[in-house]
Amino acid sequence: DSIMQKTTVDDFLSMPEAVELSGYSRRQIVRLCANGDLPSARKLGDRWLVPRQELLDYTPAPRGPVPKKKK
C-alpha cells in the first residue's frame, strides 16, 4: 500500500513567510528557488511559492575549498 500525499496551498509559503520561518534573506531564498535547491518551488508571475518542508529540510553545501585527500 502506498499512500499518495496531496500537495495543498498550505504546503507552500509566501516569500515573507519563508524569510521569517527560515532566517534566510529574500535574496537567498530566491536563489535557492531559482537554482533548483528547492525543487518544488513554483514561480507565479513575479512571485515564488516556497515549499515549506523543503525549506525546513534544506542544508547548505559546505563552503570554501574542497579538503585534500590524505594519501
Helix content: 25-40%
Cα-based radius of gyration, to the nearest Å: 15 Å
Q: How many beta-strand segments?
A: 3
Residue fraction in strands: 5-15%
Order of helices and strands: EHHEEH
Strand order, biggest sheet? 1-3-2
Q: What would your notes on this structure say?
A:
By secondary structure, the protein is α+β, with helices and mostly antiparallel strands. It is built from three helices and three strands; from the N terminus they run βααββα. The chain has a three-stranded antiparallel beta sheet with strand order 1-3-2. Strand 2 and strand 3 form a beta hairpin.
Labels describing this entry:
3 strands, alpha+beta
What does the secondary structure layout of this molecule look like, with pairings?
Blueprint: E1 12-13, H1 15-22, H2 26-35, E2 42-44, E3 47-51, H3 52-57
Antiparallel strand pairs: 1-3, 2-3
At a glance:
By secondary structure, the protein is α+β, with helices and mostly antiparallel strands. Helix content is 34%, strand content 14%.
